[in-house]
Amino acid sequence: MPATAGERPLTPAGRRVLEVASALFYERGIGQVGMELIAAEAGVTKKTVYDRFGSKEALVLAYLRARDERWRAFLDERLAAAPSPRERVLATFDALGEWLRAESARGCSMVNAVAEVPAPDHPVHRVAAEQKSWLRGLYADLIVQAGHGDAGGLADRLALLHEGAVVMFSVGAMADAPEIARDTAAALLP
Questions:
Q1: Cα 118 from Cα 149, distance rounded (Å)
Q2: What is the pTM of this model?
Q3: For 148-185, how does the pLDDT look when each residue is reduced to its tens digit (9 = 90+)?
Q4: 55 contact partners, CB below 8 Å, separation of at least 6
Q5: What are the start-end ranges of the H helices in 43-117?
Q6: Gap between the Cα atoms of 46 and 180, Å rounded
Q7: Same domain flag for 108 and 155
Q8: Is 160 helix (H, G, I), strand (E, B) or coil?
Q9: 79 neighbors 92 (Cβ within 8 angstroms)
Q10: How far apart are CA 72 and CA 109, in angstroms?
Q11: Sign of CA dihedral 111, 116, 118, 122
Q12: Domain tally, the chain
């Protein structure tokens, strides 16, 4: 996966840095993790971290993009197994429940990053907005495949259900939030 502004492929050390940084950023928060800690945990020098990524900002963006790629691949597998267009829509919520329980107990990495970096012109906001826009677009595509006429309006509702389930699950308010969101989506679909 490309990781730097120049889109160079990652070396083994670069992949290790990204893996370590991703785990630390997600578990501890971006602001709580310094380049020294990342280098130490990855078993490389701080110079290696900067040589591979250029800056902490670039490393954060690589982390967000890599996490999003993992989510999309995870979701694609579940969608491919669904037997019908309607079931593919519902499979997004099944996949969400699996993902939250296995990979995202602290919630959405995009939302967490945006909360830590409040400046709206920061590139983190663009990456997060692109991911959320992709999700809405996915729902619109799935709705069209399912033969529903109001793809935009229904896609908005499903994206909100999805994001609401992430929040309710991650704050500990509803352990079954993905399942409730799935049931609600099923009621909205024709």
A1: 37
A2: 0.90
A3: 877 889 999 999 999 999 999 999 889 999 999 999 99
A4: none
A5: 46-53, 56-81, 85-103, 109-116
A6: 45
A7: yes
A8: helix
A9: yes
A10: 14
A11: negative
A12: 2
- Structural domain range at position 1: 1-54
Percent of the chain at pLDDT exceeding 70: 96
Residue 68 CA to residue 128 CA, distance in Å, equals 9
What secondary structure letter does DSSP report for 103?
H
Residues 79, 173: one domain? Answer: yes
Specify the residue for token string 């992949």. Answer: 15
Task: Write the CATH number for 28.
Answer: 1.10.10.60
Letter for the amino acid at 157? R
Nearest Cα to Cα of residue 63 among 1, 134, 120, 106: 1
Taking the C-alpha atoms of residue 139 and residue 88, their distance in angstroms, rounded to an integer, is 10
Distance separating alpha carbons of residues 57 and 53, to the nearest angstrom: 9
Residue ending a domain, among 34, 54, 74, is 54
Residue 59 lies in a domain: no
- Count of other CB atoms within 10 angstroms of residue 75: 19
- Cα–Cα dist 100/178, whole Å: 9
